[in-house]
Write a structure and sequence with these properties.
about 290 residues, 2-enoyl-CoA Hydratase, Chain A, domain 1, 7-stranded mixed beta sheet, two-stranded antiparallel ribbon, 9 strands, about 40% helix
């Protein structure tokens, strides 16, 4: 009987991991960056990174939290904050239900608490499977609640961004979240608490123009597209060709926008070191 339960548990775990994966279902994957064909299991072992060229495939919010948290364990906060349809935008309710069924999430951000390197922190992760990680009023509310939770408990904060920007179905209510989250982060800064922003592919629009750019330390994954408007929109607007690699993490690193590019395999260690180095702040205490 125990064997039967174990098989069922493994099958459910495999189904969950498949639903969270961005990788194509084929056993041999063609890398969109280098064009090489690589066995799917090799890419999975490399944390959804192409072993040939280092291309970072997107990963889900839960997968990212398991990647960085000690023991792959975390406690989710404010799970049931969900978007409404304040503008009665046609088809929006159906899109929300479809995203919830596809991802198992209530909204495009997960707010969680756990430990990295033995140090407790709050981590917020945008999940691009949910309407491209777009920022709704509910996403802004969850982020703000997470920041306020961080301030009350004097903890460090980490936000992993992956977003196409503001959610057009909510109009100005979505854009208001830029000011709301930025104001909450200002209170966190006044308390002398650490905020680490991690930019992943893509981080665009109002997310870039607000909380994603306000970190005390800003990290990025290799090759991540980071900006406000997309490269094609900019080229059409200014009538000029952009430099090669424009808006990619490496270009932004060269021009001083981010502090470091960290491969996925080294992200947990990098975060653990940053938390350790900043632990001497007078406002911090381990819970």
């Amino acid at each position: 009987m125990t064997h039967v339960f174990e098989k069922r548990r493994n099958r459910l775990r495999a189904m969950k991991e498949l639903s969270e994966s961005y990788l194509p279902p084929e056993q041999v994957i063609t890398c969109p960056s280098c064009g090489q064909e690589v066995a799917r299991e090799e890419v999975e072992r490399a944390l959804s990174v192409c072993p040939a060229c280092g291309h970072h495939f997107p990963i889900s919010g839960p997968a990212r939290l398991r990647l960085v948290m000690d023991g792959a364990k975390y406690r989710e906060l404010y799970r049931h904050v969900q978007a409404g349809n304040p503008l009665d935008f046609p088809g929006y309710d159906d899109k929300l239900r479809a995203a919830q069924e596809k991802t198992g999430l209530d909204e495009a951000v997960i707010v969680a608490t756990g430990e990295i390197g033995g140090r407790r922190c709050v981590a917020c992760v945008l999940d691009s499977r949910f309407m491209m990680g777009s920022m709704s009023a509910a996403v802004g509310e969850k982020l703000t609640l997470g920041i306020e939770y961080t301030v009350r408990r004097a903890l460090p904060l980490i936000i992993f961004s992956a977003s196409g920007g503001a959610r057009m179905q909510e109009g100005i209510l979505s854009l208001m979240q830029m000011a709301k989250t930025s104001a909450a982060l200002a209170k966190l800064s006044q308390k002398g608490l650490l905020y680490i922003s991690v930019l992943t592919d893509p981080t665009m629009g109002g997310v870039t123009a607000s909380f994603a750019s306000l970190g005390d330390v800003i990290l990025a994954e290799p090759g991540a597209l980071i900006g406000f408007a997309g490269p094609r929109v900019i080229e059409q607007t200014i009538g000029q060709s952009l430099p090669e690699g424009f808006q990619r993490a490496e270009f932004l690193m060269e021009h001083g926008f981010i502090d470091a590019i960290v491969p996925r395999s080294g992200l947990r260690d990098a975060l653990a070191k940053l938390l350790m180095l900043h632990e001497g702040g007078t406002a911090w205490r381990k819970h």
